[in-house]
Fold this protein.
Amino acid sequence: MSYNLLKGKRGIIFGALDENSIAWKTAERVHQEGGTFVLTNAPIAMRMGQIKALAEKTGSEIIPADATSMEDLENLVLKSMEILGGKIDFVLHSIGMSVNVRKGNHYTNENYDYTMKGLDVSALSFHKVMQTAMKQDAMNDWGSIVALTYIAAQRVFPDYNDMADNKSYLESIARSFGYHYGIAKKVRVNTISQSPTMTTAGSGVKGFNEFINYSEEMSPLGNASALACADYCISLFSDLTKYVTMQNLFHDGGFSNTGVTQSVIEKFSD
Ligand SMILES: NC(=O)c1ccc[n+]([C@@H]2O[C@H](COP(=O)([O-])OP(=O)(O)OC[C@H]3O[C@@H](n4cnc5c(N)ncnc54)[C@H](O)[C@@H]3O)[C@@H](O)[C@H]2O)c1
């Protein structure tokens, strides 16, 4: 079902790797809702991924950009305005990566070069994107910027490793930059704290299959899917949520406010 909620709106979508990606589903939904956008991803992901198929399907252009490179970001924002024919109304930052997780380093045995790399990709890149957009005066008034996060920023999920710290930093950037962008341009900035979702980034976390089942049982509504997350992104990009800013918004079927569910309790009965 579509409502033309994003008719006339232009955006940049980071992070569509394959059809499981949250960014991929969001791009499809934005297209259905009448929005236009540029797709971007790291040059390496461009070679591995299937982003070209998504671009064809949605009539979009692709501009490669490493989200940690100011040069790439400056080029991306400038070219996006040219391609889309005007300033930007929405940005999706759907990027995450931990080298320590990839290499199997325990949280208590981090390689700090890896830690810094993961922090740059997963969190600082969000600041870099917004700083670049602000310097180029690329956002329209009442624009909306969204990044994706996980509840490990607030509570310990041991195997989430240093991504937990990256997500805390990401959420803090959303609050701080949201203040300044609000004052300067009435641009809103939020993070969506999404349920565990079967994607390339998600399944890189140790014990993910067991964990996703646990989360399903601990959420009154069950885990939110990538498509449901895309729907939530649409609502935040639309004019229906103009006064929501500087928030971390849980999109998790109720997991974050649940202490225990009956079905989990029953697993412990004799
Ligand atoms: N999957 C989950 O369980 C889950 C839950 C909560 C939040 N999230 C968050 O959702 C976001 C999207 O992840 P996903 O689950 O769709 O997985 P995904 O693997 O499909 O997407 C991650 C994307 O980050 C991109 N990326 C990595 N390094 C980059 C760089 N240097 N520059 C630009 N892009 C880069 C990858 O190419 C990829 O497209 C991430 O922030 C992730 O942490 C995921």
